[in-house]
Amino acid sequence: GAGVSQTPSNKVTEKGKYxxxxxxxxxxxxxxxxxxxxxxxGPEFLIYFQGTGAADDSGLxxxxxxxxxxxxxxxxxxxxxxxxxxSAVYLCASRAGTYAYEQYFGPGTRLTVT
Amino acid sequence: xxQVEQSPPDLIxxxxxxxxxxxxxxxxxxxxxxxxxxxxxxxxxxxxxxxxTKQNGRLSATTVATERYSLLYISSSQxxxxxxxxxxxxxxxxxxxxxxxxxxxxxxxx
Lengths: 114, 110
Fold this sequence. Notes:
heterodimer, A: mainly beta, Immunoglobulin-like, B: mainly beta, 11 strands
């Protein structure tokens, strides 16, 4: 079946602009995660959704970052007033449910802020 | 928070060689996954292995949870094994967010 998909695959934006990154999880997966990966590092947790609600947003670096999942499927990560330090690969992962523990990752969106 | 250390950071091997990658973690966990990040950046699931031993073809993994480490074994390496291998840990029955190590970069030379 189809895996996690993310769009766009690449996004170049100017400092100060607003961007939206989209994640389509595996069909039927109830849990969804956003991670951020900087060059040479492992992914770092940003936010976790169980269904429609953000169950843990402790990894969001500041209030310029926000994410939604209004219907419990597709999620959008929104970044306001982008800064050059936001440049990274943003990864989305999904997990089937309460007793399924493996996370499956999408290909990521590479964000470059110029 | 929990700390995850991977060793070695870099490994260069001839095709056909065997290798062992290590992951140490600082606290008790009940979720541990190994991933391979290919040169295109895709994270590929290798093992979900919070304890015990699993094998899948040329790859196998062992986690000793009581001693807080996991090992990934790659036998008869192929050039397609090149990439970065990540260990990630977490706690089930919570939010299950994963904490990743900094990875081991494996390069297989033909």
